[in-house]
Amino acid sequence: MRNLIVLGLVGLFAQLIDGSLGMAYGVTSSTLMLAVGISPAAASAAVHLSEVGTTLVSGAAHWKFGNVDWRIVGIMAVPGGIGAFFGATLLANINGDTAKPFVAILLMSLGGYVLWRFLRLGGERPQFKGKLKAAFLAPLGVVAGICDAIGGGGWGPVGTTSLLSSGKLEPRKVVGSIDTSEFVVAIGASLGFLFALGSQGINFGWVLALLIGGVIAAPVAAWLVRHLPARILGVAAGGIIVLTNLKTVLESVGIEGVYVALAAIAWTLIWAQMLLVSVRAERRSRAVVPEQAVDGVSA
């Protein structure tokens, strides 16, 4: 019972992050389950089955708060579900650890770019122009879906990071669209795991605990992302992208144990300072807008 309560709290915390920043439900949940000795396939299966419910509630909440770009969802969801299905069947038969360091390095690089993009604005308001092409979105959906199933979480880190770094869609729309389309991805991955492992390979108690926690947090997270300024949301997302991939990158070059923890603490402190800078910049930019409006009227 204690383990189920803990998993429920993990689901709540993970969905609060995922629904606000467009990533980390699978990464957070899978990391804890792997830490207590659950196999990668069983952990990923439980996470994805719980995500069928959490993403449905999260998508509905994001839609209610106007956070969804349905064109993005329409193009990415089905390729993502197909990629997740094949990724799930592969995970049941192969070791996916080999590719993890390379994916982590790529995501950290993109996370760093997202941070730079939103921090360099200064007192300016962020601008989002242009249109993302289907030729970019559909393959991205396949790759993100495969990474999601194999890594126990990757739809958000790959999808959200790539869309944010494009600079063509405001962060709340990125988060809402990625979270909404993840419903189809979760179904694809779940079907793949059921096909490869069978129902006996899945602990439905874990699934239910994660689901309950995630469903409670989903509407709160959707409301939060609706009210967070784009600048602050971008810096928050970029920081967590780097943080969630830091351990994998460091361990791939032989840095382990307490040094990884110290690096994570150091990055968290740096990230907190970046958030503080972004909050101050947002206040300055908001102060400039009324002054410009007054000048325009007086002219």
Automatic annotation (TrEMBL):
The chain crosses the membrane at residues 32-49, 70-92, 98-119, 174-198, 204-225, 256-277. It comes from the Bacteria. The keyword Transmembrane helix applies. It is a multi-pass membrane protein. It is found in: Cell membrane; Membrane. It holds the Pfam family TauE. GO terms for cellular component: plasma membrane. Keywords: Cell membrane, Membrane, Transmembrane, Transmembrane helix. Belongs to the 4-toluene sulfonate uptake permease (TSUP) (TC 2.A.102) family. This is Probable membrane transporter protein. It comes from Solicola gregarius.
